[in-house]
Design brief:
Blueprint: H1 2-15, H2 19-28, H3 32-35, H4 43-50, H5 52-73, H6 84-97, H7 109-117, H8 127-138, H9 145-168, H10 171-191
Length: 209
């Protein structure tokens, strides 16, 4: 129980650091929360407002904060361990809830990809997210982006659950991936109806400097 608790806490705290808010502020003096239409502290807004290099840096950091806790946990836990579920869920929940920023949090897309990449090479669960994303982006195009994200994450959860039931028996991955999916679906549905997101006023003063 010690390692699942340790890496779940570490993942939650890691996920709670909004790099796509801080990096543009630090490198470009841009507040992506205040200056973007949806007020989302995410990589897409960082790229739109600050350019591709800053956006890619934010993407790498957001994915890393999901990847590293999971990758590290698998040095101590078996891939079949049911207690892997909270380790997978923690970074996405940390990003979505963003405990360091009251009422703020991102859409949890990049961090979720990072979480699933952390399972490689022992599990290819990330493919269950990549394939629906590509399918609904190129073949059966779903718009807006938030709706496509909701559908893609729903498909990912169903694929992981089906895989656990009929193929691998890895309930920890299935449950953890499902919580990640529900988190991303919740955050993207919450932003879609009126394009509402966090306000800059909701972020702590120390994060504005």
């Amino acid at each position: 129980m010690f390692y699942p608790i340790l890496f779940s806490i570490a993942g939650f705290l890691s996920g709670g650091v909004l790099y796509s808010y801080h990096v543009p502020k630090l490198l470009c003096g841009v507040d992506v929360v205040a200056d973007s239409p949806d007020h989302n502290p995410g990589m897409t807004n960082a790229m739109k407002l600050c350019g591709v290099p800053v956006g890619l840096l934010c993407l790498a950091l957001d994915m890393a904060k999901g990847f590293l806790p999971v990758f590290a946990a698998l040095r101590f836990l078996r891939i079949e361990d049911p207690w892997l579920a909270p380790v997978l869920a923690a970074p996405a929940l940390g990003h979505a809830l963003a405990v360091f920023y009251p009422f703020a949090g991102g859409k949890a897309v990049a961090v979720s990809f990072g979480v699933l990449l952390g399972l490689l090479p022992q599990s290819a669960a990330v493919v269950a997210l990549i394939v629906p994303y590509l399918f609904f982006s190129t073949i059966v195009v779903i718009r807006p982006d938030e709706r496509r994200t909701v559908v893609s994450f729903f498909c990912m959860a169903m694929l992981c659950l089906a895989g656990a039931v009929f193929v691998t028996g890895r309930t920890g991955i299935a449950l953890g991936a499902s919580i990640v999916a529900v988190t991303a679906m919740w955050k993207n549905r919450a932003r879609n109806p009126g394009g509402q997101g966090v306000r800059s006023e909701a972020l702590p003063e120390k994060g504005r400097g």
